[in-house]
Amino acid sequence: MAAVAAGVGQQWVLVEMVQAFYEAPAYHLILEGILILWIIRLLFSKTYKLQERSDLTLKEKEELIEEWQPEPLVPPVPKDHPALNYNIVSGPPTHIITVNGKECINFASFNFLGLLNNEKVKSAAQASLKKYGVGTCGPRGFYGTFDVHLELEERLAKFMRTEEAIIYSYGFATIASAIPAYSKRGDIVFVDEAACFAIQKGLQASRSNIKLFKHNDMADLERLLKEQESEDQKNPRKARVTRRFIVVEGLYMNTGDICPLPELIKLKYKYKVRIFLEESLSFGVLGAHGRGITEHFGINIDDIDLISANMENSLASIGGFCCGRSFIIDHQRLSGQGYCFSASLPPLLAAAAIEALNIMEDNPAFNPLCSQRRIHALSGQTRISGLKVVGESFSPALHLQLEESWGSRENDVKLLKRVVDYCMNSGIALTQARYLEKEEKCLPPPSIRVVITVEQTEQELDRAASLLKEAAQSVLN
Amino acid sequence: AFEETPMLVAVLTYVGYGVLTLFGYLRDFMRQWKIEKCQNATEREEQKDFVPLYQDFENFYNRNLYMRIRDSWNRPICSVPGAKVDMMERVSHDYNWTFTYTGRVIKDIINMGSYNYLGFAQKTGACQEAAAKVLSQYGAGVCSTRQEMGNLDKHEELEKLVARFLGVESAMAYGMGFATNSMNIPALVGKGCLILSDELNHASLVLGARLSGATIRIFKHNNMQSLEKLLKDAIVHGQPRTRRPWKKILILVEGIYSMEGSIVRLPEVIALKKKYKSYLYLDEAHSIGALGPSGRGVVDYFGLNPEDVDVMMGTFTKSFGAAGGYIGGKKELIDYLRTYSHSAAYATSMSPPVVEQIITSVKCIMGEDGTTIGRARVQQLAENTRYFRRRLKEMGFIIYGNEDSPVVPLMLYMPAKIGAFGREMLKRNIGVVVVGFPATPIIESRARFCLSAAHTKEMLDTALKEINEVGDLLQLKYSRRRLVPLLDRPFDETTYEETED
C-alpha cells in the first residue's frame, strides 16, 4: 500500500517536472544545457598541477644535469690567513706556558682563579678517573647520569642559592640550547648588541623575533619596550601569548664591561619581561664570594629567571650549567637539545668542577676582589700609546684596541699580530680576540685579548705593561 | 623494509593512547579545579601576571603520559658504564613526581643501554693509565679556544692519528659530538645551497641544517629512488621561484640510524652522488668502530674508498669511550674548517685526558699498540651482534634494523608496555633503554639494545633468557615470520638487502 502510494507520489513529481520543463523559458533551458555540457567537459579533462612544471623532455633534463656545475665544497683558504695557523702549546696551558717552543707568561687563557694546575683538583679528577673511566657512553636519559653529575648540580644550586641547576657537557651549547627551549617562533627577545656568539646562535635556533638594543643603553631598551607595548595594545589577544625575554651578559666578553642589572630588574617588572643572564665571565669573578653579578649588585637571585654560565673559565673544567628556579630549569631536561641529545659530561671533569667549587667556597685567598688591584696596575697607571684599554677595571678579560684604525680591518689585524708576535718573542703570551667576521651580527673591532689571573704577580703585570708599551711604540710608529 | 605492524596491535595501541589522553584531560580538569593536588612547580607570586612561560598544551604529554613512566629514564649509575653497571636505587612515593634515593646500590646490572660498542669504558687498562698520566701533567681543562691559546700538541697528535685511522688526508676534532654537526654544517653550506637529509636524521644534523640557512628537502628513509628523484628535480628546476641553479647540494646521511638500527646504503648513495655531482656528509656517530672488519666504520663495512665521502663526521663517545666529535676529509676542507668553524673560534677545545683516551683507544683498534685486543674486540662485537639478533628473531620478536648493526630495536608498540618492559627487566637485573614518542613515531615505541664487545656469551644468554620471559609475560612476540634456527651464514655483500622485502 505504502509502496504504491510512494510510486504514485513519484509519478506525480515526475509529471510536475516534465510540465515545468515545457513551461520554462527558452534562455533558461539553453543556460542549463550549457552548464551541463561544461560540467561534463570538466569531469573528463585532465587535472592540472598548481606548479606548472615545464614540459622538458627527458633529453633536455639529462643535458641540464650534465651541464650543471656546483661550486667547490669549500673555497680555498689563503695560506697566510690569520686564523689558519694555530699556536701550538706544548704542555699544560698554565701560568707559565710554552707556546711554539718558547716559554712565556700566560696572559691569554681564561684561567682566572688559577685552578687549572691545582693539585687538589687534579687528584679529585684522578680519583674519578679510577672509579668511572673516561667517557659516559650515553646521554643523560640512557644510563649517562652519574652520581657525580647529580652531586655537581646540587652543589652548584646550593652555591648560587637557587633551587636547581642543570649541567651541559659543552660551554657553548649551554646558552645555545637554553634559549630555544623557552623562546619559540613568535616570541620576542631583546638582546644587547655585544652579546657573544653562543647567544646569537641560540637566538637563531629559536626562530623568535630579535630586537637588538645598543650596548648597555637602557634608554634604547626602554624605547624598544615602549614600542612593543604600543604594538601589544593594538593586538591584545596576540600579546597575551607572546613571551618576552631580555638576554644580557654579566660581564661582556666582547667589550669587558658590566651590564646595569638593577635598572634591568626595574624594566623587567615594569614591562613584564623575563631576564636571562649569561655569566660566563662573571661567575667566580664578581661578588664577594664569586657568585656573579647578582651578588655584586646585591640583587635577589630569584629576580633573574635563568642564569647560565660555563665552567670553562673560573672553574677550569669543561662544560656549562644553568641555574634558577625548578619551574624554569626542569623544562630544559626534556627540551634542551644539547642536554637530551648529547652525551653527558665525563665524570672526571665533573669531579674537577666539584673540587674547584669547594676551593672557591672555602678559600678566601681566592677572593676575586684581589684581582681588581691587579687589573688596575695594567689599565690605570700605564698609558700605552696607540692602544686603548677597553673594559671595566674589575673585568679579568680586557681588550686592547687600536686608538685609530689604519685603513681596513685586515690591516688592523696584521698590525695587532705584529704587536702580539713582539710580545710573544719576549716572553708574554697574548692572543688576538678571534671572531668569525661574516657570521657575527655586530662585529667588534679587532683587539688583543688580555686576561688577568690570580696567579700573576705584580712584577709580571708591570713587565707585561712595559712590554706592551714597547711593542706598540715599535710597531705603530 | 621492516616487518609491518600487525593491524590488531596498531589498533590496540591507538586505543591505549586514547584512554591515556582521556584520563589526562580528566586529571588536568581535577587539578585545575583543585580537587587534586598539583605537584608541578609553579611560577613565582611576583610574576604571576607575566605571560605564561609554557603553554598548557605543550606540557600535556609531559604531565600525563611521560610522568607515569618517568622512572625508565635518567637512571643514575655509580660505576663505570661497562658490560655490568651499578645503579643507585630510587623510589617514588608519589607516582614519579619526586624521587628519593634509598641509598642502596643495585649491583651488577647487565648494561644493554650504554653506547659501549667496543668495550673501552673501563676503569683499568692501558687507556685509563695513559689518561691518568696526561691528567696529572696537563690538568683537566683548557680555558681557551682552538684559535686563541687552546691548541695543545695533544690535539695535533690526535688529529693526525684520526686522519690516519679513517684513511683521509686530514681531520679536526671538537669537544662535543652534537656541536660538531650543529656548528660545522652552517660553515659548509649557506643560503642558495640545497640540503637533502634523510627522514630519520639525528637532532644535531637537523639543527645544523636549519642554522645554515640552506633549503632542506627530506627523502624517505634509506630510499634511493626518493633521493634520486629529489636530486633530479633539484638540478633540473633549480632554486624555487628564481630558477637559479643551486650553488651546491649536500646529502646528509648517517652510518647507523640510532632508533632504527638500519645501515645506510652507502654504495648506492655514492653512485648517486657521483652521477649528480653533489657532496656527501656522512655522520658515523654509531658506526665508527662498530662496523667493518677492522672497525673503521661503514665505509670499511662496504669496502669502499674513504675519499669518496666528502665529509666524514663521527663521534668519540660511542666506540672510543671518551667524548667529542671529529670531521675528516680533504686538506682544503679541514683548512677551511679550521678557519671558519664556529667551534674553532668560540668554543673551548677538548680536555687533554679525554684526548689521550681517544689516542690510546684508536691505536688499540688499529693494532699499533702491539696487541691484538682491538681486532679481537671488533670481531667479538660482530659475533655478539649476529648471535643476539638471530636469537631474538627466533623467539618471535619484531626486530628492526640491519643484520650487522649492534643497535637492536625490539618493538613494543603499546604505551603501557614501555614502562612495564623497563621495570620488569630491571627487576631481573638487566638495564635496557626504552623509547617512545617523540623520539619515535607515536605507535612505534621500542626497546633498544646496544651490544658491546664487553658482553660475554654468558651475559647475552642470561639477557636473552630474561627477555624471553618478559616477552611471554607482556605478550611481545608479535612476529608472524618464524625463523628456523640455522647455522651461521657467511658474511656477504647482499646482507643489507635482506631488509628490503
Number of DSSP strand runs of chain B: 14
Largest sheet of chain A: 7 strands, mixed
Q: Unreliable runs of chain A, pLDDT <50, ≥5 residues?
A: none
Which oligomeric state applies? heterodimer
Q: What is the spatial order of strands in the main beta sheet of chain A?
A: 5-11-10-9-8-6-7
| Measured distance between first and last alpha carbons of chain B | 6 Å
Estimate percent helicity of chain A: 40-55%
Strand order of the largest sheet of chain B: 4-10-9-8-7-5-6
Question: What share of the residues of chain B does DSSP label as strand, in percent?
Answer: 5-15%
* Contiguous runs where pLDDT drops below 50 for at least 5 residues of chain B: 488-501
Furnish the topology, listing elements before pairings.
The complex is a heterodimer of chains A (477) and B (501).
Chain A: H1 2-23, H2 26-44, H3 58-67, E1 89-90, E2 96-99, E3 102-106, H4 119-132, E4 145-146, H5 147-160, E5 164-168, H6 171-182, E6 188-192, H7 197-206, E7 209-213, H8 218-234, H9 236-241, E8 244-249, H10 261-271, E9 274-278, H11 293-297, E10 306-310, E11 320-324, H12 326-335, H13 337-340, H14 347-362, H15 369-381, E12 387-390, E13 397-402, H16 409-425, E14 428-429, E15 431-432, E16 447-451, H17 458-476
Chain B: H1 7-32, H2 60-64, E1 76-77, E2 84-91, E3 100-111, H3 126-138, H4 153-166, E4 170-174, H5 177-188, E5 194-198, H6 203-212, E6 215-219, H7 224-237, E7 249-254, H8 266-275, E8 279-283, H9 298-302, E9 311-315, E10 325-329, H10 331-340, H11 342-346, H12 352-366, H13 373-395, E11 407-411, H14 415-427, E12 430-431, E13 433-435, E14 446-450, H15 457-474
Parallel strand pairs in B: 3-12, 5-6, 5-7, 7-8, 8-9
Antiparallel strand pairs in B: 2-3, 4-10, 9-10, 11-14, 13-14
Helix pairs in contact in B: 3-12, 4-12, 5-6, 12-13, 13-15, 14-15
